């Protein structure tokens, strides 16, 4: 079980639990222990916080909403033993099974297909407080999403209704310009041409505004990026995923010919993708580790303060040579 507490506004939070429940073949004691732990975790959430519980419950809750008021009108199938455990817990804690409150086709409600009977079942569920059901705007299965599992992806859309915090009136901070674009010779020359038209003899404010406007028009704003291995290799990863996705979409067609051969191709593409992703990830982390160790060396020199002039005479050249590292080839004659 994993727990995530996400801040909303006005000091309000939404607590999300991601779970994986025991299967029907599991020991009854394990099933009972799981639901006791889940019940205790849900009770520990403050009453003024939003609550979402989602995951593979391995439970079929059925469609009998007259007997169980935690269900909506759009359930599927029959209830099983794990489903009874779940329905009882929901009734005690005032929770609702969000999957059963939206009218969709059966293929957009079934999250797992039985390998032998080929019958669809709703076992990947989302629970929320009955009083907050109005926050849940949509919930359906995305059949086209390739998740490398026999379960289908379930997408839920929420619109949490909390009071928005009023912003205090103040000076608006200008957005940062993407000066990294100046590394490109064409962009750098274009920026010089734009700056040559700025009037330098006027007031400082007009010059500053003209320079900023030229930077926005030519360089654009700096985008906030979350550095990770898949961001650095985005183009290559997307190309590999597109190839596998194309094969997967063909497999969704029940009338396609040569399905066995296509499944072998798909498994080979999936194995190749995983191998390539592991290679990209290992390479990225290795480079990050080298970069991190380099910064640590510089930081140690930055924080070193010599106690006497003799120490400064010895350490400072080493410090600045490490930080700058100007290559000798830059000063060599042609």
Could you characterize the architecture of this molecule?
The chain has helices spanning 28-43, 81-93, 185-195, 204-218, 229-232, 234-251, 259-303, 309-324, and strands spanning 2-7, 13-20, 50-56, 95-97, 112-113, 120-121, 124-129, 136-142, 153-158. By secondary structure, the protein is α+β, with helices and mostly antiparallel strands. It folds into three domains: 2-158, Endonuclease/exonuclease/phosphatase (Deoxyribonuclease I, Chain A); 179-219, no CATH class; 235-295. It has a five-stranded mixed sheet with strand order 1-2-3-7-4, covered by helices on one side. Strands 5-6 form a two-stranded antiparallel ribbon. Strand 1 (2-7) and strand 2 (13-20) form a beta hairpin. Helix 1 runs parallel beside helix 2 and helix 6 packs antiparallel against helix 7 (259-303). The model is unreliable at 326-334 (pLDDT under 50).
